[in-house]
Amino acid sequence: MEEPKVIFNEDQKAVLLKALKDIHFANGQLHEWVKKDSLTEEMSKTLPSLIENYFSEVAKVLNYESHLLAEKEKRYEDIRKANIRIRELEEKLGSGKPVEGLKEQLQHLADKVRDWWDKEGFHHVSEMKYHSSGVMSMDFCFMLDHYSSFSKTPETDKRNKKEHIQMLRDQGFEFADFEKGRSEKLNLIDNPINRTLLSKMLKTRFPSLEIHSWDNMSSYSDPDVFVIWHVNAYIYDLKDI
């Protein structure tokens, strides 16, 4: 089927042909000067402005401005519909997630964190919370003196405990050995070395973890020296667990 032709009256045709001729001349001049590397700074602004004005005359005669406006409105409408659809899908995803088994899943994640910390010998994790943003927070406590304290193989565990403590010392951890009055001297001194090592240990296991605060307390033997009590941290990506 043959495409319909655009019919111009005499005035429209005259205006259109003149504007097209002016565009052709200005474009040719610009092409020539660019080709010969003779385009001046002033003309680099003047010629594009002239071409833009000439094309504006052409667009008026061709009713192209109305076409552009209609296209723009259609794009805006398509974007608006897409945004509404996205919000609908997000709402469905947020409200449609199955809650069956969710309690067990959250408990499993908490147990994995606790088991890892217990394996590292520090024994206790407290104040575990899940937040609406999908973040998990907790306090990592330091209770090395409770290492394997409830085991059914106490003698074996004594040896394992000694080896584990020595391993931590070999890694550079500094213990409160000055507490002569205690049978076990397993508190970690609150100093930059221990903080750095603990931060590295935690972030190696949970890459998205961020430490929010350190809590310490004075040692039993020397009130001027502080030992680490617990670390408050947030795991921002539960997939790390």
TrEMBL record:
This is Uncharacterized protein. It comes from Cytobacillus oceanisediminis. It comes from the Bacteria.
